[in-house]
Every structure is written in C-alpha cells, then in structure tokens.
Amino acid sequence: MAHLRPVLSIATVATLTSALTAQLPPIDSGGFLVSDFGNDRVAIYAADGSHTGHFSTPGLDGPRGILFASNGQTFVASQNNDTVYTFDAARQLVGQFSHPELDGPTGMAESPTGELLVSSFFNARVCVFAMDGTFQRSFTAPTLSFPNCAAFDSDGNIYVASAGNGRVFKFDTGEQFVTSFTSPAPTFLSSPMGIARDNCDVLYVAGGGSHNIVKFATDGTFLGALTHPDLTGPQGVAIDDRGHVFSSSFFQHKLVEFDANGAWVQTITAGGLNVPRSIAFKRLAEPGIEVYGCGVNPAGSIVVQSGRPVLGTTVSLGLHDPTLTQTPGSTAPWLLGSTRALANYPCGFTLPGLGEILIELASLHLVLLVPAPTWNGTSSTAAFLIPDSCDLVGVTLHTQGVLLDSSPGATRPIAFTDAARIRIGSH
C-alpha cells in the first residue's frame, strides 16, 4: 500500500481546503447555461463567465429549468406553455414533451436511476418522466406550495424548494415525504427558488424573496448564508467543479459568482440577460484513468490493474520495463503523483537515454510517492487509497512511474514509464 511523501500526501492535500483552488485545479471545468426568461432563449457562458452566445427554438416561452443530462442532451423547461424541450450537444432541437399534470414546469433534476424530475409550479407536485419524455408518475406532500427547483443528495434523497411557504421539502429515495425545513431568525429564507448540492452534501438554496443563498446540511441544519448587493431576487444557483457558487439576480439581470469559501469573485453583466433564472453547468467528466504519453517511453510501461478512482477506493497501477534493459531483482519502482501534467500535455520533456518526463515534479505539485515491490521482470504493482474526502471530487491527479536500477554498472539506472491521468469521482 502507499507510502506517502512526508511533505505532502493526497490525504494531507484533502484537508487543505483553502489551497485546493490553487493547488488542485480540475482541468475539466465546463461552461454553463442560463435560462434567459425575458428573452425566451438560453444564454451560453464559458467557465470564466464570458458570454459566448445563445440558443432557442420556436415555441420556447419563459425558459426556467435547465439540465445537462447523462445521455448528452440538454433539457429546457418552458414555463409558459407547459413544455420541456430537448436539445442535442450542438444545441439543435431534438424533441419536446408535456403532460396534463405538468402545469408551469420550473426546475429539473436527473435521478440516480436516470429519470427526469420536473417541478410543476402551479399544481404543487413533481412530475417524473423517462428520458424520452414518457410520463411515469408524480409525487407531492400536503403543504408543498409552488415548487421550484429540485436536487438529490449523495444518498438519493430528494430536496424541493417550496416557494409558497419558504421551506425546503425532503423526500426519501421512494419519493415519500420525510420533513421540511427553513432557516432560523435572523436569517430568513423567503420564496426559495434554485437549489443545488455540492460534493460535501451541502445544500445551497436561493432565497428569491430574502435576497440570499442559504446553506443547509441534508438534515436541515442551517449552515450560513451568502449575500451580495448585486444579488437581489436570486433565482438559479449552481456549483462548478471548483466549488464556486453561481446565482442569477432576477431584479438586476446579472450573474454573481462566489468562491468555495463564500467570497465574492465577480458580477457578470455580459449577455443581455432579461430576468435570468436557472443556471446549469456542463456535467463533470466521469471518474476514470487514462494512460498517456507520446511514444518515447515504452508501451505497456504503466497499466491500470484495478480500481475505479472514487472516494474510499484503492487504485492499483502496474509499473514495468518492457524493454527488459534493467536488472530484475535490483530495480525499485516508484509511482509519483502530481497535481499537474507538463505544459505540452500529453507530451512531456525527453531526457536522452532515460525517457520522457510527463508530469510536473516541482515540490509544490508533487503529492504522492508510492513504492512498488522490487521489479523482477514483470509488472510491479503500486497501490494507493483515495481518501474519503469530498474535497477531492473532480480533482485530476497525474501519475508516472520511475524505475531505479541500483545494480553495479546498470545499463539504465533510471527509466520512466508512461503516465496515467486519474480523474477522481464521488462514491
């Protein structure tokens, strides 16, 4: 199992919350969409908040909820005509659907089982559809009033913002009502609209009438609130893979960004928004491991042996010298892990006779050092545990093996393997 570098280990980095933004930038931060209610279109933004365009379709009337679905399509709820529109990755219309129970569709969420939840504002329920638009069922609670957005926690429980009574309603995985909650005085939650969950199961609820974003634990415990003069009548709320929180200002036609610690980052005015509502970020890349290099190090020098890179699991990589130019029984393999690849990723820097360095080895970025058993002519296993820390979700770790031949007169005292890019996911 992993012997972690004393200076920094992946477990240590997980606790450095304030440094994660600088130290561990997820390289897959995607752009986001904003429903531009007054203009009957959807605005498109890059991850840095720059406006890049918009799209619409005939009939779209009062767009509210937006969802990047796991099937690659984008769903947009049209509140004023009780319709949900479906677009492909090129923003071209694929289809549309409705149902008699859908009366004023607002927020949307995808369930862990791949169903589409659509809040029905005017008849106080949540409608459930298959991804092809086929109506499945609906659910509600006795005092659910003007439901807006919905979100799931990591256990599959459902949270629905109830605008009519200033509460958040919790349903279990079987869509049965569990409880409702709101914030205590002096922080009030009025007319909750958007709702989002971060990787640590913290709920962020936009208080459209209280001009704040209120934070809750999944048991309803109040955790604080975010406010800013530019954020009046907040509607949508969404969280990117850095933990930054974005919300839309109903009255000022702006977007406001906060960092993972709740500090204001910027106010976005570009895009000609007219009553911005929901915000949706491009889905995170799925957790996975990708071997890379540019053909300098031998193929097969690093292989994925086992483990899906999610919290609380062990990942095993095999390190090998396929050229058999090092000495079996005298060669020590090590797996190095860095928060960055070199600038010309997927290529690196070639050292004649040694191979290609593919990851950043500066001490600031080197977070993992794992020994593998002595190399005996076949692949040697380097294994490490990914800590069960929500701060690591979305982090990309770049790993590379180095084999050190200590035998006298070694032909290749040092050899490098190809690299493996590891994208960490949740459970």
Taken as a percent bin, the fraction of beta residues is 35-45%
Per CATH, the class of the largest domain reads Mainly Beta
CATH architecture of the largest domain: 6 Propeller
Count of helical stretches: 2
Mean pLDDT: 91
Shape: elongated
Largest sheet: 5 strands, antiparallel
Number of strands: 34
What are the main properties of this structure?
single chain; 427 residues; mainly beta; Immunoglobulin-like; Neuraminidase; 2 domains; 4-stranded antiparallel β-sheet; 2 helices; elongated; disordered N terminus
Compact overview of the structure:
The chain is an all-beta fold and 427 residues long. It has helices at residues 10-15, 20-23; strands at residues 32-36, 41-45, 51-55, 63-68, 74-78, 83-87, 93-97, 105-110, 116-120, 125-129, 135-139, 147-152, 158-162, 167-171, 177-181, 192-197, 203-207, 212-216, 222-226, 234-239, 245-249, 254-258, 264-268, 276-281, 288-292, 302-306, 314-319, 331-338, 349-351, 355-357, 366-371, 380-385, 396-405, 414-423.
